[in-house]
Structures are given as C-alpha cells and as structure tokens.
Amino acid sequence: VISPRQRIESMREILLQSSLSLGEIADIEADADKLGVSSLVVKLGGVSTYPAFVTNEASLRFTINTVTEEWLHQYLVFKPLGFRYLLDLTGVSRNYEIATINETLAGMVSKEIGSIVREEYYPEYGNEGNQTVESEFDFNREMREIRKTVDKYLAQGEIEQAEEFMEQKRQYLASMGRYIRKLNQAYFAWYGTYADSPTSISPIGLELKKLRSQSSSLKDFLDKVAVITSRQELRDSIKSQSG
Description:
Layout: E1 2-4, H1 22-33, E2 37-39, E3 46-47, E4 53-54, H2 60-76, H3 80-89, H4 96-121, H5 139-155, H6 159-175, H7 185-191, H8 204-214, H9 218-226, H10 231-242
Helix pairs in contact: 2-3, 2-4, 3-4, 4-8, 4-9, 5-6, 8-10
C-alpha cells in the first residue's frame, strides 16, 4: 500500500507474493519510502479474483464474512459503483471516496449476511471469533484520536511531527497489548478505506449506515448503493429517502 506522506490517501496497491519474509517486507517498504512516499505491506484475508482467494487461517466468523465480501466485490464490479472502483484500483481514474464507499458497503453487507448464515447453519459456534475482553483501554477510541491528530499535523504541513507521533503511539499501543508492526500514513490509508472502522474519520460510514436504516431490506440497500457513482449521489439518496 502506497500513500503520500503529506496526506492520508491510497495512491496505489500492489499485490505481492504471500511467502515474503519479514526481512523482505522491510526491504520492500524501505525501497518504496526512498521515493518519498509512505508504504506498508499488509496481509490480506481475501482477494476478489475469480475464483476469490480467502485465507484458511481464520475463525469461522471471519471466513464467512470474507467469502461474502469478496463475492460482493465480484458482484459490484458489474455495477456503476464497482466499475468505478475498478478504475480506481487500476489507476485509470483514482477516486478515494468511491473506494471508501465500495469497501464500506461490501463490509457492511458481508457482516449482515455473515450473521444470518452463522445463525442459520452454525448456531453451535455462538459468538466464536467475536469475543471481547473487558478493559478500561478503548482501542477503537484511541485509534480514532490518533487519526484525528495525525490529520491535523499533516494539514499544517508538519509531516515529520506526524510520523514521530504515530511511532510514539505505536509503542504505546504495544504497551497496552495491541501490537501494530508499522503505523504510518499508508496504514491509515489502507484501513481507513473501511469507513466504519476505527482508523477512519470519513463520514461515509455514518452516511451508509443512515441509508441502511432507511432501506426496507438488505437487498434494497445494496441496490441503492450499487448504482452510486459519487459521494454526492450517496447524499442525494439519503435526502430523497428522508423527504
């Protein structure tokens, strides 16, 4: 994943071999960073090739959600939203908002379908893969605050300060039991594409959740968003439902 240093935005994603060692990963990132960008090698749970790739080293919950999400990407590529996301991925027409809408939609719908599938066919697994440990430390809130502070630094042109701050916070998170190998602009660019995640400050997540609440069914929601070609159209769809 490659992001500019001066702002958080995915410039390009490049698929790498899954067998890379940690040393090879570090070398790739170092070489990329020499070009004046922020880079990060991330492990994928799935890729929407055909047939899709999904890891076999995850919980039932994660596997079902990921299978569904990759199928949704395949489905959406034949719709206006997904086709524009394909143009973004291939670099033909970069549009970070379209990428965020597409990824967030696929994530939301896959979680809802995944929950239905587990309840219907795997009730014996209960809340497997979704256990939380009671703690005073709120990881989601901490990540949102880190993201907000980083954005402020970058908006003021204080790139080095932003990077120093992220490294300090990475070490703090590790001390709290939440290890992140590398916390930088590329990290937030990648995980921030999911607007309903703690690493994103995009309002698109809330907008999609509002449209979901206005929709009569999951199919109705998916059909509405699949034809969207801009964030303004998403806003207009919400307004039309409210009216």
